[in-house]
Prior knowledge:
The protein has 212 residues and is of the alpha+beta class. It has two domains: 3-81, no CATH class; 110-206, Glutaredoxin (3-Layer(aba) Sandwich), CATH 3.40.30.10. It is 43% helix and 13% strand. It has eight helices and four strands. A four-stranded mixed beta sheet has the order 2-1-3-4, with helices on one face.
Amino acid sequence: MENGAVLCETVRVFGELDSDRDGVLDGGDFLVLDSPGSSMDPDLAAWESTYAALDKLDGIDGKAGGAAFHAGLSEALQKIDGEGDGDGDDDVLASASTTLSIPFVGTKDFDAKVLRSEKVAVVLFGASWCGPCINARSTFEGVVKGPAGPHIVPFLVDADEHQVLPSKYNVPTLPTFVFFKKGLVVEKVLGAVSADKLNATVQKVRDGHGPL
């Protein structure tokens, strides 16, 4: 695997196995999953995938001990932590690409960047554990790089990190694309739809489709 693909796989599995969602995957998580009487079903194949990815990055065998495993994972996360917040949550959808063209937005800057945008703002709501969200992210990237790109302002929202936003804008499922025009929601597209569907929706909104 290329380095970027290894990083993507490492953080994807990280999101699935961080049982307490504390932003750290270490020996403690494995002990919880593998303990007698645990109600959680350990995904050993996923663990092996994580270890293999870390070995490719660092030459560290995660099974050797929690400290070594944590050190290797931390190094991997630092390489893709575009936010600089110490975890891989909002970065997971971007980790497969070295040229991120779609920024993340959160509760603190949503109004300024999305609602006050002079262009149509398109927001993809997703999550690190959501497989279809990765496909939607890839399709979104293609649309942004295509003819529709200059006419929209694209953003990503991690629905787990900023739960107030999907609740506020009635996002029913992940992934969901929400289109904003002059601060109002004018269209929603549910699921990992095709580029043609997204492009058609951009054109529909640009042609004067009113608020929902």
